[in-house]
Design a protein that fits this description.
It is built from 18 helices and 16 strands. By secondary structure, the protein is of the alpha+beta class. It has a domain at about 210-370 and about 375-485: Beta-lactamase. The chain has a five-stranded mixed β-sheet. Helix 10 packs across helix 12 (about 275-285) and helix 12 crosses helix 14 (about 320-325). The model has no long low-confidence stretch (mean pLDDT about 95).
């Protein structure tokens, strides 16, 4: 064999070797990425070859599967009361990636989770029977929130303070996930939903932090009591009225000029929502102590999974004293989700102990065997002392009994709450946000619930927008549903 032939042979062998390396790389390294590619129709064909597992509320499936009339996608997802539970389930679509619980537990619901396989499934390489996701949602509380919000743009969350179980998650305006399930019709519905200025696909309860307004005063009061700045909610504070923002000539005005806010106690300051008291208190404490307390309640936690990842609620840092004063009334760059403000009330109601919130109780296999129990895994942290919590409970009860939150009163139930009306837009140019966060305790049943509601927009005149007027009635309806069983 001459040198030229020998070289050509070596070169050809190198090309074959390179081809084999590339094929191996594609098969074993890029194969998973190609299999997971959203454009790979084989994934949808496999997912919808059989009925999916279900999402369960109070023992009943709120999802289902229906046979299709033709094509290679044999089944599609169906929903019972889809708009009611959309903020819980999300959607499973033949055309789009699943969201919320449908997305998080997709492997369980479509039978591909390895934990579902039996020995026979492994031997025959058969896809396992799908599992189910059992939620903590109470349908009575969910329906009460959904109907009370009505055509308002807003959101509501209810939590059991002792267990951390989320009893309701509602976001309005909602949408029917059924409109997105069929690949043949999903495109039209998708375009309509994604171009809607009200953004119905956004889960406002978990994933839209807004200025919490005066509901944040509960966090400031907790910091003042826990730090020892004031020994009791009934000790007069050193608070002038009007209070000038430090370094400015701008007074921090109160909603009611006639309210007894000068040197008011924390109880009275919460009752009348005195901005001068909490603005001054924030400056007295300083941003570091306020941030530390906010973080104990769950602010600035970028890994809050319920199991849907909630957007981070924020207490800012690096401020001057004027801005710190504004954070004391839940303005400046303070933001919170309704979930976060429900957590504040839940911890106060639970003696200062915050139990990790979760809306899934168990994940089971096709035979009902538990794969994961989230109730057993719920963690708890004592974030404020029981004494501080008791004092705040008492002050919040005053808010409801004879303060700014009287629309939340319920006969036979101990209710404590805090209203909030947060500025919105540059120079408060848009309609304010109406907030209410509360807890309720039934003397007869022993049941407890913590709630937070925000109304972003309603048909009420701007002058009529208030936490007591718009949000408190929604909270009351939810607490009644949870407690009066």
């Amino acid at each position: 064999m001459n040198k030229t032939i020998r070289r050509a042979s070596v070169f050809a062998l190198l090309l074959v070797f390179a081809l084999l390396l590339r094929a191996t790389w594609v098969q074993f390294y890029e194969g998973r990425a190609l299999a997971d590619d959203k454009s790979n129709r084989r994934n949808a064909i496999e997912t919808y070859a059989e009925p999916l597992g279900n999402i369960i509320v109070a023992g009943k499936a709120i999802t289902g599967s229906a046979a299709t009339s033709g094509g290679d996608l044999r089944y599609k997802r169906t929903y019972t009361d889809g708009a009611l539970y959309a903020a819980v389930t999300g959607y499973a679509s033949q055309a789009y990636a699943p969201t919320q619980l449908e997305g998080i537990y997709a492997d369980v619901l479509n039978g591909t989770d390895p934990r579902l396989k039996t020995v026979l499934d492994t031997v025959t390489n058969r896809r396992a029977d799908p599992g189910d996701v059992i939620t903590t949602i109470d349908p009575r509380v969910q329906k009460a929130a959904y109907h009370a919000l009505g055509d308002k743009k807003g959101a509501a969350v209810a939590i059991d303070p002792k267990t951390g179980q989320i009893l309701a998650i509602v976001s309005t305006p909602s949408y029917d996930p059924s409109s997105l399930t069929d690949a043949n019709t999903a495109g039209t519905a998708w375009k309509k939903l994604t171009t809607d200025s009200d953004k119905p696909l956004v889960n406002r309860a978990l994933r839209q932090p807004l200025a919490p307004g005066s509901t944040f005063k509960l966090v400031v009061a907790a910091a003042a009591l826990q730090d020892g700045l004031y020994k009791s909610v009934d000790v007069p504070t050193d608070s002038v009225n009007p209070y000038m923002l430090p370094g400015t000539r701008t007074p921090l005005k109160n909603e009611s000029a006639s309210a007894p806010c000068e040197n008011a106690t924390i109880r009275v300051a919460l009752q009348y929502s005195c901005n001068n008291v909490f603005g001054h208190m924030a400056v007295q404490l300083g941003q570091d102590k306020l941030k530390a307390m906010a973080d104990r309640f769950g602010f600035d936690d970028d890994s809050l999974d319920v199991p849907v990842r909630a957007y981070t609620s924020v207490y800012p840092s690096g401020m001057d004293k004027s801005s710190t004063a504004l954070t004391g009334i839940g303005q400046f760059d303070v933001t919170a989700t309704p979930l976060q403000m429900a957590m504040v009330s839940a911890a106060i109601a639970n003696g200062g102990k915050l139990v990790s919130p979760h809306m899934v109780s168990q994940v089971t296999d096709g035979g009902g065997n538990v794969l994961k129990d989230y109730d057993d895994d719920a963690s708890s942290t004592q974030i404020i002392s029981s004494s501080t919590a008791e004092q705040l409970q008492s002050a919040m009860q005053t808010v409801v009994e004879k303060g700014t939150g009287t629309n939340a009163l319920i006969d036979g139930v101990t209710v404590g709450g805090k209203t909030g009306t947060a500025q919105n837009g540059e120079n408060n140019s848009k309609a304010p946000y109406a907030w209410f966060t509360s807890y309720g305790k039934s003397g007869s049943s022993g049941e407890e619930v913590a709630v937070a509601v925000v109304v972003e927009q309603s048909d009420a005149a701007r002058s009529e927008v208030s936490g007591n007027g718009l949000a408190a009635p929604v909270a009351r309806a939810m607490m009644e549903a949870a407690l009066k069983k």
